[in-house]
Amino acid sequence: RGAVLEGSYEKDKKPSIPQLSGAVWEACSSFKKVPATNITAIGRAITQVAVSMKDVLREMKEVKPASPEDEASGDDEDDDDDLGNDLSPEEMEVAQMVAEIMSETIMVIKELIRVITGMIKLENPKDNSGFVDSLEKLLKLCKGTGDQIDEIGACVYPPQEIVKMKQALKIIQGNLDEVESEVEGLKSASEAFTGACGKLRSSIKHMEGELDKRCEDEVVAGMQNVTLGS
C-alpha cells in the first residue's frame, strides 16, 4: 500500500510522482508549440492546476506513521516539525487512499490536456466562442477540483476530518461528471481520457465506502462507551 506514497509502481501500475511530473510538463510543452491564443492560455492554466496538485501529492508522500515511542507516550503536543509524522495505521490507510485520488485526478487532467491539444493540432480551431466557452468551463471545473484536492490533503493531518473528506469527494465526483460531459460534447473524448475518468470514479467510490465504515465504527464505539458508562 505504501507504494503510492513512495512514488513507485504497484501491481496495477499506479503512476509514480516522477512519471506524473513528466507527463504534466510534456503536456505543458505541447501548448508552447501552439500560437498564443485564448485557447492556449486556458490550456496552460489547466496545466498549472495539475502542477499544483502534484505539489500536494508530494506532501502526501511525506506523511509518516507515528513511531512506537510516540504511541506509547501518548504525547499529543503540537509540534510543527512533527506535522504529518504521527499518523496511526488507520490514518495512514486514509492518507494512501487520498494519494491515490490525487494521482488519478492528475491523470484525468493530463489526458484532458492531451484531448485539447489533439483538437488544436487536428482542427486548428480559431478562438470561436463555443470552443473557448467549453474550455473556460473545463478550466473552472479543474480549478474547483484543485481546491478540493487541497482540502482533502489538509484533512489527512490528525485529527483527520472524515466528514470534510466526504464532502470534498462528492464535489470532485460532480466536477468529474461535468468534465466528462463537456468533453463528450466536444466529440473528442479519447479512450485514455475515458479510462482515467473511470479509474478516478472507482477510487472515489472505494474511498467513500471506506470512510463510511469508519464513521459507522465511530458511532458504534461511541454507543458502547455510553452503555458502559451508564
UniProtKB/TrEMBL annotation:
Residues 61-87 are annotated as: Disordered. Residues 7-65 form the Cyclin-D1-binding protein 1-like N-terminal domain. Residues 78-180 form the Cyclin-D1-binding protein 1-like C-terminal domain. It is found in: Cytoplasm; Nucleus. Residues 68-87 have a biased composition (Acidic residues). Belongs to the CCNDBP1 family. This is (rape) hypothetical protein. Residues 162-189 form a coiled coil. GO terms for cellular component: cytoplasm; nucleus. Keywords: Cell cycle, Coiled coil, Cytoplasm, Nucleus.
